[in-house]
Amino acid sequence: MNLSLPIPLQTILLLTASNVFMTFAWYGHLKNLADRPWYVAALLSWGIALFEYMLMVPANRIGVQQFSVGQLKIIQEVVTLSVFVPFAVFYLREPLKLDYLWAGLCLVAAVYFMFRSS
Description:
Strand content: under 5%
Organism: Methylibium petroleiphilum (strain ATCC BAA-1232 / LMG 22953 / PM1)
Largest sheet: none
Pfam families: DMT_6
Distance between the termini: 32 Å
Shape: globular
InterPro entries: DUF486
Structural class: mainly alpha
Number of strands: 0
Keywords: Membrane, Transmembrane, Transmembrane helix
Order of helices and strands: HHHH
Transmembrane segments: 12-30, 36-53, 74-92, 98-115
């Protein structure tokens, strides 16, 4: 029995998992390592980013079978905002702002323009 997921779903799931690692690599040190030298945070972030790349590269290789590179990039940006907002609000305790909504609406427009000719 073949339980292979459709290419779009594989791509989005891998990009989402990749973005969780990316977000922790880029911003997690602000909460956890604020009292450490920057190079400690950089080294730890690079270690976390390795897992990001181990998911991002397959996501793009799978995704390019169905999407253009531009479409992959805009999917990535939507996923990034979708992962970042909960991370900022729940993990970093940043206030939820309407600016996230406006940014999301701009991305909806970007998705429209990247996919309209498909």
